[in-house]
Write a structure and sequence with these properties.
The chain is an alpha+beta fold and about 150 residues long. Helices cover about 25% and strands about 40% of the residues. It has three helices and seven strands.
Amino acid sequence: MRTMDEATVVIKTTFHVPVEKVWQAWTNPALIMRWFGSDPHGSVSKAVLDVRPGGHFEITFNDSDKTEHTCSGIYKDVEKFRKLTFSWMWKSEPGFESSVCLLLIGEGNATHMQFTHSDLWHESKHSYEQGWRGAFSKLEKILEASV
């Protein structure tokens, strides 16, 4: 069994773009479709986002081997350009809910992002840290290409 520290993934990174661009990448379905999912050669087939407290999201993406994944959740805190928190569930693991908190700090033309995924289910088939780091690598490429 994992300890509480092992049941939480914290990733801190800096993107060399203004905070507005990072916020849009998390809240605009067309942009989510360009970077979401850990497989560098995967693709997103569906992204529905209702970004407001109590709003629902559902994202379906495919790995390069065509394995399909669907995640969904409810937005809890939505503070434009600053904070986004939401619940997280996998379609393949019903009944197990975790929490995501995204904090953004703009500093000129850079954005510091602290990403926390907590309350992770210790028996999950997903490698959360590896998965998020893969997704953020894709996010960094699309953000910095848009400068």
